[in-house]
Design goal:
Radius of gyration: 16 Å
CATH superfamily: Spore Coat Polysaccharide Biosynthesis Protein SpsA, Chain A
Number of domains: 1
Number of helices: 7
Distance between the termini: 41 Å
Shape: globular
Mean pLDDT: 93
Helix content: 25-40%
CATH topology: Spore Coat Polysaccharide Biosynthesis Protein SpsA, Chain A
Strand order of the largest sheet: 3-2-1-4-6-5-7
CATH architecture: Alpha-Beta Complex
Number of strands: 7
Largest sheet: 7 strands, mixed
Low-confidence stretches: none
């Protein structure tokens, strides 16, 4: 049986004020929210380097992200492409050879190597895995990708609502789905205040 190397894709936007964490920016200012995202993302990338998987940065906007000096130069980068979040994640799942792949956002401070290892382990006997967020969305989606990615993946998902997780799971009707730990993402000042002081 062929053994495929796991891939972990981190979805990143260039941390310009008004382009990232705009809801948080309404609470603390767009410059401060962009600063938070830049430092949170850098810390996350440092934490997630691990010999057990390939770490890949999916960047946006495409050309600016590919040339950016913000992100580590030694890590491979791929463009996110166009469309909504589902279109951009689907492109990642379709873009490389088969094998387990997990996709995460960069704004969840509690993601660490243990959480990622749990997700890849769950793909051992499941077709898909989700890391739920406490707002009804999710911080991680992973697919085993031994068979073709479903063409309807992410169709009709109500993004940025409490229905995002259930809607996405509904686009995988014949998949064995696992869930790992529920984590909190940071969208507002209230979310930020919930973080431990070290985050």
């Amino acid at each position: 049986m062929i053994s495929y190397r796991p891939r972990l894709v981190v979805m990143l936007k260039e941390p310009h004020p008004g382009r990232v964490k705009t809801r948080l920016g309404r609470d603390i200012g767009l410059t401060r929210s962009a600063w938070w995202f830049r430092h949170q993302s850098a810390a996350l990338i440092r934490r997630l380097r691990d010999p057990r998987w390939d770490l890949i940065l999916a960047v946006a906007p495409d050309q600016e992200g590919l040339q950016s000096r913000v992100w580590p130069a030694d890590l491979p980068r791929v463009p996110q492409g166009g469309g909504d979040l589902g279109d951009r994640m689907a492109q990642q799942f379709h873009s490389v050879a088969p094998g387990p792949m997990c996709i995460i956002g960069a704004d969840i401070p509690d993601i660490n190597r243990t959480r990622i290892a749990e997700a890849f382990k769950a793909l051992g006997d499941h077709d898909a895995v989700f890391g739920p967020a406490d707002d009804g969305g999710y911080w991680l989606i992973g697919l085993k990708r031994i068979r073709p990615v479903p063409p309807g993946l992410f169709t009709g998902v109500r993004w940025s609502t409490e229905k995002a997780l259930v809607d996405t799971m509904a686009t995988l009707p014949d998949h064995r789905i696992a869930q790992v730990a529920t984590l909190r993402d940071v969208d507002t000042l209230a979310d930020l205040k919930m973080l431990p002081r070290s985050a």
